[in-house]
Specification:
Length: about 475
């Protein structure tokens, strides 16, 4: 005799789910950075820096690197591999598949990278510290883990379209940051080593498409591609992105899920729970309690330029680009959000952190402005996070009100739709609502998200009844 009882997830599965939560990843990243920052500003700071510079690895292969370099060049390659996997998925079957729908956040990402670089360069130019100009790309990045964590905690109840907009923007931001690193922060190229990377990537492409796709072979090929790329003069993390693009994004060989999904599920806990916190620990430990006053450090040109780029440049670039695109072209934002809703999104985009810290190391290899650049990244990220959290909290509270703009006129129709009462259905204005002057949402959208967990026997019947109710309330649509 058997009983149909839902099995309790194993401890390992519960741990995996916990680590891969957006809030958990952001918390671990923040905790690691805070530990490093505090340690680096105590009497035991020398021990922290000695640990960061401790060399390990085979010298014969030119891999006797400091632990900090292993974190940024080695471990971070896994993070960039998953970035490549996610980009491949989004380009083939995800949010970037339909260029028309993705065009606004894609262009917003471009503007959100260009404006911080412009503001950074202007600040450096006005102050006259030309030696810091090479760090123009530092404030252009967005840390997707931090940004999504802040949105998840403080933006509860806001439209899901906001999260999709931020996700698309951050993914494109990552892609552009990868291109910037590959193009502008590459030393003398070693062509034979680049060819070796290409050969390893081609082999990886074939093996990952075989029916059995042996994991140990993929690991060996990935290590080979990483070593060739590391020896070529291009930053080694780019190898991870290339291999990520090699993974098929559609199910093959009769499998139920795509291998991008399988690989992401398997490796995401290690990336979120180990790789990013370890990188943050070695990257964020900046000693700023020195003989100089705190004010002198914060007023360094590179610090001011990065903070201005992250906090002012990101939000300005995102909002200005989105405004121009939606006003001057036929492209539009999703029905559920408007330009005003993007204010907190632009703020959280100013959280640079992971990639910004990496570019800070690459920009000032001689160490002249590295400490100031990292302080600027940490400060700009903190200010953007606080401002974004405040804006998201305010919008979330407003979204729960019937009169969201406080003009005395309800902005959401709280009455149930006639004819649906007999089906036991009810609308949730906190999920789907429409502002003054907006058209009623298109009947082809996913209304199941707004239903109270009820399965419809005939979806077409529901849509037809919705059309009739829409026409009776608002008149025939221009498309009817």
């Amino acid at each position: 005799m058997t009983t149909d009882v839902m099995e309790r997830p194993s401890r390992a599965e519960r741990l995996r789910l916990w680590v891969t939560r957006e809030t958990t990843g952001g918390a671990l990243l923040l905790a690691a950075a805070m530990v490093a920052l505090i340690w680096a500003n105590t009497p035991w700071a020398d021990a922290y820096h000695a640990l960061s510079q401790y060399r390990v690895g085979p010298e014969a292969w030119h891999l006797d690197l400091p632990l900090a370099a292993w974190a940024s060049d080695g471990l971070l390659a896994l993070f960039f591999f998953l970035v490549g996997v996610e980009l491949k998925h989004d380009l083939v079957v995800g949010s970037l598949r339909n260029l028309k729908e993705a065009a606004v956040p894609v262009l917003a990402a471009v503007g959100g990278m260009a404006m911080p670089a412009i503001i950074f360069s202007l600040v450096i130019l006005l102050i006259g510290d030309s030696s810091a100009a090479h760090g123009w790309a530092i404030p252009t990045a967005t840390d997707i883990a931090f940004a999504l964590a802040v949105l998840a905690v403080f933006g509860r109840g806001l439209p899901r379209a906001l999260r999709m907009f931020l996700m698309t923007l951050a993914v494109v931001d990552d892609l552009l940051a990868i291109i910037v690193i590959a193009v502008f922060y590459t030393s003398d190229l070693n062509i034979p080593m680049l060819l070796g990377t290409a050969a390893a990537a081609v082999a990886f492409w074939f093996v990952v498409r075989t029916r059995r796709w042996p994991r140990w072979v993929l690991v060996l090929l990935a290590l080979a591609a990483w070593w060739f790329m590391h020896s070529s003069g291009v930053h080694a993390t780019i190898a991870g992105v290339i291999l990520g693009f090699c993974v098929p994004a559609r199910p093959i060989h009769g499998e139920e899920e795509a291998r991008t999904h399988t690989i992401n599920n398997a490796l995401q806990p290690y990336s979120a729970g180990l790789v990013l916190p370890i990188f943050a620990f070695f990257a964020a430990g900046v000693t700023f309690i020195t003989g100089e006053g705190i004010g002198d450090i914060l007023l360094q040109p590179v610090v001011l330029a990065i903070v201005a780029g992250l906090f002012i440049g990101k939000i300005t670039g995102v909002l200005l680009t989105t405004t121009l695109v939606t006003k001057l072209t036929p492209l539009r934002l999703p029905d559920a959000i408007g330009l005003r809703d993007l204010l907190p999104i632009g703020l959280v985009c100013g959280m640079g952190f992971t990639v910004s810290l990496l570019i800070a190391d690459l920009s000032f290899a001689d160490g002249t402005h590295t400490a100031g650049a990292k302080i600027g990244v940490l400060l700009g990220t903190a200010v953007s996070a606080i401002a974004g959290a405040i804006a998201l909290s305010r919008d979330a509270r407003m979204a729960r009100r019937a009169d969201m703009n406080l003009d005395g006129v309800p902005d959401v129709d709280t009455e149930p739709i006639k004819g649906d009462e007999r089906r036991g259905l009810s609308w949730h204005p906190d999920v789907i609502g429409f502002m003054d002057g907006e058209d009623i949402p298109d009947p082809d959208m996913d209304y199941m998200a707004a239903l109270d967990g009820v399965e419809l026997d005939v979806e077409t019947e529901f849509k037809e009844s919705l059309d009739e109710e829409r026409d009776s309330r608002y008149g025939p649509s221009s498309e009817d």
